[in-house]
């Protein structure tokens, strides 16, 4: 019973040290949080503004995204009103003001919608690269960013060319040279797909010039496979998994201390070709249509934010059957012919533990605006971000486990345990709350 209370209080109140309450990021690892600027335009509880951001859970913030002006090869704002003009200050300056809290704030450029064609053309010319780099330095200085995150998705693909691989090296090398004077950080988000890695990235070379490499270890599978498969499996028989990607990058020469493991705060959705005879079936491997269903806030086929998933499970528990796939370490939920596979707290914590075992630089979150940031599904907001920091703040390297982390996965000083025991005596009512909370998380 005592350990039950300790686990609950730790989740409810956060990590401690001998001096009392501490900030959530009491660790030496990187926690890079992408903030999707377009999340502000989502409907209802999904609308996320910078006022909703709790930066204490992050060490680095990346504002996503700026774009590339194909007419003159300069960096540009994709949403000038929101980025520059909103509230008379703009989100760029709102974000960079958070530097005062000790965070590093970077500007991301690129992303899925930008594609690869224009970046390929820009990087193919020395003059074009110089123009882009000069405009980027000026842009970062104007809005007081700490650096740039390069999200060219993906060199050699999506309209790119065979020569992108070498030109990507030239681009990051020249950016690094230009950034030295201003002490700007330079990071890049890279694919987790081995074929794209081989086509687009000279891993040993780009590792020389990048401060961190953000590995987008998600979207391994989706409705496009016409089969229910994990979005971000820890391990997988088809070798499309977090473990396979990280081991491959290490073998290719990426320094562990520069690799940042990407974590998905969203799930992939599927519509089965037929309703299962029982909702208790493990759906992994079942045939599906080529397009998944939408979430109410993100409104994107085949995609649901964690906040959308957990709200659906809370509001309509009678409609959904939840489960866990042991092999891939993936959570899932089934409602008739609808399936969503996603990372819950358990899956996220297991991946953070893996990053620690591999001595990686830390973890990256895509994206913080789809955590349960309003606390609609739990006793506190940001349950996934909180769980990440709990694992990182535990200063022992955990062994690989296949059960849900509990109170034994976080070690507390003896005087804190004693203090908690006193609190338990006074607040026995927390037992019922804890049981309710545990039910929501399972």
From TrEMBL:
List the record's Gene Ontology CC terms alphabetically.
Answer: extracellular region
Q: Which UniProt keywords apply?
A: Glycosidase, Hydrolase, Signal
Could you cite one Gene Ontology molecular function of this protein? chitin binding
Q: Name one Pfam family in it.
A: Glyco_hydro_18
Q: Name one GO biological process term.
A: chitin catabolic process
Query: What Gene3D superfamilies does this protein map onto?
Result: 3.10.50.10, Glycosidases
The family line of this record is: Belongs to the glycosyl hydrolase 18 family.
| Domain GH18 span(s) in chain numbering | 29-395
Name recorded for this polypeptide: Probable chitinase 2
Cleaved signal peptide residues = 1-20
Kindly give the SMART domains that the UniProt entry links to this protein. Answer: Glyco_18
């Amino acid at each position: 019973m005592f350990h039950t209370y300790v686990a609950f209080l730790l989740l409810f109140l956060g990590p401690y040290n001998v001096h009392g309450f501490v900030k959530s990021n009491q660790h030496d690892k990187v926690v890079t949080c992408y903030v999707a600027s377009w999340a502000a335009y989502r409907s209802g509880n999904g609308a996320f503004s910078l006022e909703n951001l709790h930066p204490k859970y992050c060490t680095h913030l990346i504002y996503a995204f700026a774009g590339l002006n194909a007419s003159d090869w300069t960096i540009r704002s994709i949403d000038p009103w929101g980025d520059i003009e909103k509230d008379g200050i703009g989100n760029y300056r709102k974000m960079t003001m958070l530097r005062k809290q000790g965070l590093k704030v970077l500007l991301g450029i690129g992303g899925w919608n930008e594609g690869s064609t224009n970046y390929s053309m820009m990087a193919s010319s020395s003059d074009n690269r110089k123009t882009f780099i000069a405009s980027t330095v000026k842009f970062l200085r104007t809005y007081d960013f700490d650096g740039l995150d390069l999200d060219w998705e993906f060199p050699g693909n999506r309209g790119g060319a065979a020569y992108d691989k070498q030109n990507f090296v030239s681009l990051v090398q020249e950016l690094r040279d230009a950034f030295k004077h201003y002490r700007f950080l330079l990071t890049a988000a890279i694919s987790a797909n081995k074929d794209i890695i081989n086509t687009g990235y000279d891993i040993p070379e780009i590792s020389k010039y990048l401060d961190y490499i953000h590995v987008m270890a998600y979207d391994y599978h989706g409705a496009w496979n016409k089969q229910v498969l994990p979005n971000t499996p820890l391990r997988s028989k088809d070798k499309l998994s977090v473990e396979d990607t990280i081991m491959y990058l290490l073998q290719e020469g990426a320094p562990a201390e520069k690799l940042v493991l990407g974590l998905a705060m969203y799930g992939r959705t599927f519509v089965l070709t037929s309703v299962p005879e029982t909702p208790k079936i493990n759906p992994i491997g079942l045939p599906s249509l080529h397009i998944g269903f939408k979430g109410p806030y993100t409104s994107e086929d085949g995609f649901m934010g964690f906040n959308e998933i957990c709200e659906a499970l809370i509001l309509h528990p009678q409609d959904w059957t939840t489960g866990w796939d042991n092999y891939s370490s993936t959570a899932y939920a089934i409602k008739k012919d609808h399936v969503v596979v996603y990372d819950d707290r358990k899956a996220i914590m297991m991946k953070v533990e893996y990053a620690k075992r591999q001595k990686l630089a830390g973890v990256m979150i895509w994206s913080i605006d789809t955590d349960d940031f309003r606390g609609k599904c739990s006793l506190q907001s940001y349950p996934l971000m909180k769980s990440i920091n709990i694992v990182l703040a535990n200063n022992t390297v955990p062994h690989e486990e296949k059960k849900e982390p509990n109170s034994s996965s976080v070690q507390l000083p003896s005087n804190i345990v004693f203090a908690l025991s006193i609190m338990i005596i006074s607040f026995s009512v927390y037992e019922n709350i804890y049981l309710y909370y545990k039910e929501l998380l399972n």
